[in-house]
UniProtKB/TrEMBL annotation:
Name of this protein: Cupin domain protein
Domain of life of the native organism: Bacteria
Classification via InterPro entries: ChrR-like_cupin_dom (IPR025979), RmlC-like_jellyroll (IPR014710), RmlC_Cupin_sf (IPR011051)
SUPFAM superfamilies named in the record: RmlC-like cupins (SSF51182)
Classification via Pfam families: Cupin_7
Residue stretches making up the ChrR-like cupin domain: 7-108
Length: 118
């Protein structure tokens, strides 16, 4: 374990948004900034996601659940519209898609990789 707190700080304002590409699939209009990379699983488990207006992430499963906090804009999951300040916890095995008619920025905690179902 590192004892210097600087090792654990992510300066997200100094990072560029990167296109979201998972398993070779480019999700147009969705961008990511990794916040916490987990060495054991070789993936980021805490991220920022930015949806451009009209962007859609397909129907998928969360084997270990997820946590979402809306920083700006609005996101639609199933029949629920989340707006800035809203928090959502989905339990393990919860399935849904995500869209954003007007664009949004989300804080995500995703313990395990999602499974695309569409």
């Amino acid at each position: 374990m590192h004892t210097d707190i600087q090792h654990y700080i992510t300066h997200s304002n100094q990072q560029d948004w990167q296109p979201l590409i998972e398993k070779g699939i480019h999700y147009k209009g969705i961008f990511v900034k990794p916040l916490r990379y987990d060495e054991a699983s070789q993936r980021s488990k805490t991220i920022l996601l930015k949806f451009e207006p009209g962007a859609v992430y397909p129907y998928h499963n969360h084997p270990a659940g997820e946590e979402i906090f809306v920083l700006s804009g609005e996101a639609v999951l199933e029949q629920a519209t989340l707006t800035a300040g809203d928090y959502l916890y989905t339990p393990p095995g919860f399935k849904h898609s995500v869209s954003s008619p007007s664009g949004c920025t989300l804080f995500f905690v995703i313990p395990e990789e999602v499974e695309i179902l569409g």
